[in-house]
Design brief:
- The complex is a heterodimer of chains A (about 400) and B (about 120).
- Chain A is mainly α.
- In chain A, α16 packs antiparallel against α17.
- Chain A has a two-stranded antiparallel ribbon with strand order 1-2.
- Chain B has about 120 residues and is of the alpha+beta class.
- In chain B, strands 2-5-1-6 form a four-stranded antiparallel beta sheet. Chain B has a two-stranded antiparallel sheet with strand order 3-4.
- Chain B is flat and about 50 Å long.
- Classes of the chains: A mainly alpha (about 400), B alpha+beta (about 120).
- The interface between A and B is small, with 9 and 12 residues.
């Protein structure tokens, strides 16, 4: 249950932290000050009422906290004869408007000089406002590990001189792709049922469309995530995985599908033809009844061409199997170098099962099960194996 | 920011030896260009790692071995110092180094004062 207060915090956290980092040049002081300001708000607002301009209130309070902290630290620094913080630590005290520096922040968090796990953790912490503990739980690592990851990343930003800025034009495409990859990774982690990560990725995706309204891939990514996420409730029945074809369509979130299609339209209007736009278009076709598998196959062909990804080719095989039959799908799959990829084996198994080649199907299901850690996916594969147990091979 | 830029040749020297005269001239020109980049202080040129001697002291005894501390392929091949605004600027200089595109790499190490 999200209270209005939590809603404000959710919306404002990243903005406050970003602005503070912008003029302090320090992640830790910024985060600490933001945390104090939000704690004061949590204490006062329910009692005294929410101020007219919550953002300005939070920003001012956090800024004042940061100023205090710097003054204390300066005194400390001088006492020990260490040079005080750089001159950009001068905090503008009479500013009435605050620049939105979330974009600078996300580009810093997703800088390629940081390990991808660190990029993800930093983005969730600083922009998303998730606590270290929440991020640790979402990624199934001990809190200490996650805390160290964050500390190390922040230290490197400072020590290595990773800039806090929107990259110049010649770097923008490459760096933006890195940002989108981080958001997509967060979404994918959440796809297996960890809803909080999927929600977070959607939130970040939406923020990016506000910050970069003219980039088609940004809209494409959000469209794709919305369309996939619209099936969230239907993908599981009592905790058990349900395949697309067997899903109860009344449980699809139609409002979200419409929102996803609107984002896709925007991406196409901006002449988007990149990989996220293509994936969004595919997801949009998947939400139609009946599915236009020929068109889906063609789009996966385009995706393979764009990304060179054998996973895209595997998906094309699935679409081809729908239009031309399982053998045609298998012919593609048998050429793919994806032997350690569980979905290759589960897809093969499914097509072999349809062909009545039960023995081969069983082997493929077993191989898929071997490669799967996820509980719901394993149980799904078990069910398939049980169904096949009594069935003779007719292939 | 001050960066120490470490040059790892990897297979770069072998690769460069097979280049045409024209391409070798380009490699030479690229080295020149880096040394003349504002903010760059060239390092003292380093000889081949084959001629390196590695020294350790264990229990007061000097242990001297032939070759570099790291493997031959992982050995440092050279260095220079770069004064730049930020890491992106340093990355940009690194991408122009011939070793980076011929199978070697440039490691960017921020300089640090420990005392």
């Amino acid at each position: 249950m999200v209270t209005p207060l939590e809603q404000v915090f959710r919306e404002e956290w990243g903005r406050v932290v970003a602005t503070l980092i912008g003029f302090l040049g320090d992640f830790d002081v910024a985060e600490e000050a933001a945390q104090e300001a939000f704690a004061i708000a949590a204490d006062r607002w329910p009692r005294d009422g929410v101020p007219g301009n919550p953002r300005a209130w939070l920003m001012t309070t956090a800024r004042n906290r940061a100023t205090d902290r710097i003054r204390r630290d300066r005194a400390f620094a001088t006492r020990f004869g260490v040079l005080a913080a750089a001159s950009h630590a001068e905090v503008p005290t009479n500013a009435t408007t605050f620049p939105d520096e979330r974009l600078e922040l996300i580009f810093t968090c997703c800088h390629p000089a940081l390990a991808i796990e660190a990029q993800v953790a930093l983005t969730l912490r600083t922009l998303g406002g998730l606590t270290t503990d929440e991020i640790a739980r979402a990624f199934l690592v001990p809190e200490r590990t996650m805390a160290q990851r964050l500390v190390r990343a922040k230290r490197k930003i400072k020590a290595a001189g990773i800039p806090f800025r929107v990259p110049p034009v010649h770097l923008l495409r490459e760096r933006l792709d890195a940002v989108l990859a981080v958001v997509y990774l967060i979404f994918n982690e959440g796809y297996g049922g960890r809803d909080e990560l999927a929600t977070e990725a959607l939130w970040l995706g939406r923020a990016l469309t506000e910050l970069l309204p003219d980039d088609p891939e940004v809209h494409g990514l959000l469209a794709m995530m919305l369309l996939h996420d619209s099936r969230r409730d239907a993908r599981f029945d009592d905790g058990e995985l349900v395949l697309l074809g067997d899903q109860d369509r009344s449980r699809w979130n139609t409002r979200q599908i419409a929102a996803g299609r609107a984002e896709l339209d925007r991406a196409l209007a901006l002449r988007g033809r990149g990989s996220y736009v293509v994936q969004a278009a595919i997801a949009s076709l998947h939400a139609e009844t009946p599915c236009d598998w020929a068109q889906i196959a063609a789009l996966y062909g385009r995706l393979t061409h764009l990304t060179g990804s054998p996973v895209a080719e595997l998906n094309r095989a699935i679409a081809i199997a729908e239009t031309e039959g399982p053998e045609a799908g298998l012919r593609i799959i048998d050429h793919l170098a994806l032997d350690d990829f569980r979905y290759l084996h589960s897809t093969r198994a499914e097509l072999l099962r349809r062909l009545g080649r039960t023995d081969e199907a069983r082997d493929a299901y077993r191989r898929a099960r071997q490669l799967t850690d996820d509980g719901a996916e394993r149980r799904f594969l078990e069910r398939r194996l049980t169904e096949l147990a009594g069935r003779p091979d007719s292939g | 920011m001050k960066y120490v830029m470490l040059i790892y040749q990897g297979t770069a020297l072998d690769e460069q030896a097979t280049l045409s005269e024209e391409e070798q001239k380009q490699v030479h020109a690229d080295y020149q260009a880096i040394n003349q980049t504002p903010g760059v202080t060239p390092g003292v040129p380093m000889g081949l790692p084959e001629n390196a001697t590695t020294v350790r002291v264990e229990d007061g005894r000097t242990l001297t071995t032939d070759g570099p501390f790291a493997g031959m392929k992982e050995a440092v091949g050279g260095w220079f110092v770069l004064e730049a605004d930020d890491l992106d600027a340093a990355i940009e200089v690194a991408t122009r180094h011939p070793a980076a595109r011929h199978g070697g790499a440039i490691e960017i190490r921020p300089s640090e004062v420990y005392w």
